[in-house]
Please model this.
Amino acid sequence: MSEFMLCGFALLFMAIAPMKNGRRPQAIGMLSLAAGFLGIVLYVLVLPSRWFAIRFELALPFAALLLLFVLQLFNAKAMLAVLAAGVLACILYAAMPGIYSGFSVESWLGLSRPVYWWKSLRFIADAPIIGHGTGSIRALFELSAAGQTGKMAEIATNPFQETLAVGIQLGAIGIVALWAMWMSHLRLFRAQSLADWIGLVIVIYTIAASMSDSELFDAHRGWNYVFGIGIAGGTVLRARMKESRGQGGDALE
Model:
């Protein structure tokens, strides 16, 4: 689903210029493709099953990218208005008696995530600076499951949260490095080109999705990030180098 979401929001950005320049057929084509990609994501987000079970791990990055697109297309006030409307819609959704009977924190986060997160915080507290070492997650969960029952007895290799997964193994040093990487990538994609937008979408998606999953530790999604940021970042840096050389040549003249 991540590829569908990334392609959908990339196409939305690509449709902005044709819409502003009056090239309606081109804009309609891109918007139609974007609607197809994002429609599939929305179908998975809100399945026509028991009381519309919402998948939290997709809802969070989708909402983050939607706010980013509104900010890009309009301004910060419009983004805040959409955010407020979304929060109000969630409150009304949860308050409706017929729907609330099928809604719970567990249905959003999954049955095991809250337990994994609570245990992960305890593991990090035991070795807060340098962590327990790479590959230590399963062993720590095995020790914590001794004598437990139910969800507390589950043995996990993934706490379903990127910052916690890094913190368990590398401590505060790893957490600082992780977020420093994300912040540097956000600063890299600060212009208005297509490459900047694609890179920004990938970074925002990964940060948001990492709140409820271990995006970078998953082989498929992790390599998506590596190749996506690598190609988009290289394109952006090459364009800026050409621009700076051109400005330098103009100054010499």
In short: The chain has twelve helices and no strands. The chain has a mean pLDDT of 83.
